[in-house]
């Protein structure tokens, strides 16, 4: 059974996959002796011509929880199942990042950073964690784990998701009709949504203006969720106090992009949930073993929903 591999981010994963699946022929692109023999593709950020000639492809496995890079791929064969990572160790890393961002907002550390630049020594009023409400947009496996960690740290946590699906670890608001209610009490809005046609540019001026004045934004999902100009405007007007962004469009941003220099923005280079190599390869290998056995692995993507 032939597997074709490509990762724009980390070629070390190829060797790990070969070691994990010795019974399969695992090739690293562009090496591909016979594209028609490829049954599984394991990919992240594949080139446009990656799928050329793979006429007998049975499944595509994403090296990540997000699949927008595949659903928008011009060469993706129609009807081939896509399987995403359901966690593979990323949930705890993202929870750490969001906890850091929430602490930064709650304790006013973002303001101390500015005071330091101004060489101004000024203690700020203290806010208790139990008086601070964090709202998570997107309550999948990762969002629920983030909610659990925040609750353990003493924060009030609510969630919002578009439909009534799955169990939730926090109080949840469902559907577009309850989005405004969800937003109205938040000190911090966390975006963990998948990027789909419905969620593209969802964090715009309408959403930001529904937050209480002085709220904070943490985006650890995709840059396409945020309307950049609306975010800058909200910060400049004081509607938002700060934004912690791990993602943007493009990545990295252009040298003259305002995210680099805006005093209300902290920017990190897409590091909130780094791929946990061994955990990811083990999950992908399990999925392939299940496919070989005619079983259905976890993480099957609904292309219509986008995740």
Write up what this structure looks like.
With 307 residues, this protein is an alpha/beta fold. It folds into 2 domains: 2-88 and 275-292, Rossmann fold (3-Layer(aba) Sandwich); 91-267, NAD(P)-binding Rossmann-like Domain (Rossmann fold, 3-Layer(aba) Sandwich), CATH 3.40.50.720. It is built from 9 helices and 12 strands. The strands form 2 sheets. It has a 7-stranded parallel sheet with strand order 8-7-6-9-10-11-12. A 5-stranded parallel sheet has the order 2-1-3-4-5, covered by helices on one side. Helix 1 crosses helix 9 (277-292) and helix 3 crosses helix 5 (141-152). The two termini are 27 Å apart.
Lay out the secondary structure.
Elements lengths: L1 E6 L4 H9 L4 E4 L9 E7 L14 E4 L5 H4 L10 E2 L6 H17 L2 H9 L15 E5 L3 H12 L3 E6 L9 E4 L4 H5 L4 E4 L13 H6 L4 E5 L8 H10 L2 E6 L19 E3 L9 H16 L15
Parallel strand pairs: 1-2, 1-3, 3-4, 4-5, 6-7, 6-9, 7-8, 9-10, 10-11, 11-12
Name its key features.
307 residues; alpha/beta; Rossmann fold; 2 domains; seven-stranded parallel sheet; five-stranded parallel sheet; 9 helices; 12 strands; elongated
């Amino acid at each position: 059974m032939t597997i074709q591999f490509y990762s724009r981010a980390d070629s070390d994963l190829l060797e790990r996959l070969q070691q994990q699946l010795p019974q399969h022929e695992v090739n690293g692109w562009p090496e591909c002796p016979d594209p028609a023999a490829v049954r599984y593709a394991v990919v992240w950020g594949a080139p446009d011509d990656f799928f050329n000639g793979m006429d007998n492809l049975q499944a595509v496995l994403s090296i990540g929880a997000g699949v927008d890079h595949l659903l928008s791929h011009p060469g993706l064969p129609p009807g081939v199942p896509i399987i995403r990572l359901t966690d593979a160790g990323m949930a705890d890393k993202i929870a750490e990042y969001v906890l850091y961002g929430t602490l930064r907002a709650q304790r006013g550390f973002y303001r101390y950073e500015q005071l330091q630049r101004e060489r101004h020594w000024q203690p700020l009023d203290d806010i208790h964690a139990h008086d601070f409400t964090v709202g998570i947009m997107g309550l999948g496996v990762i969002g629920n784990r983030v909610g659990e960690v925040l609750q353990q740290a003493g924060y009030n946590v609510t969630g919002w998701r578009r439909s009534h699906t799955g169990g939730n670890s926090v109080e949840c608001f469902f559907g577009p009709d309850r989005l405004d209610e969800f937003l109205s009490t938040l000190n911090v809005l966390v975006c963990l949504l998948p990027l789909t046609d419905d969620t593209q540019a969802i964090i715009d001026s309408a959403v930001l203006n529904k937050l209480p004045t002085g709220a904070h934004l943490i985006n650890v999902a995709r840059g396409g969720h945020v309307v950049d100009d609306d975010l800058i405007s909200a910060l400049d007007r004081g509607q938002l106090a700060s934004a912690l962004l791990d993602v943007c469009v493009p990545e990295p941003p252009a040298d003259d992009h305002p995210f680099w220099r805006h005093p209300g923005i902290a920017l990190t280079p897409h590091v909130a949930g780094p791929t946990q190599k061994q955990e990811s390869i083990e999950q992908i290998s399990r999925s392939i073993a299940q496919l070989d056995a005619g079983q259905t692995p976890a993480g099957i993507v609904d292309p219509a929903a986008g995740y």
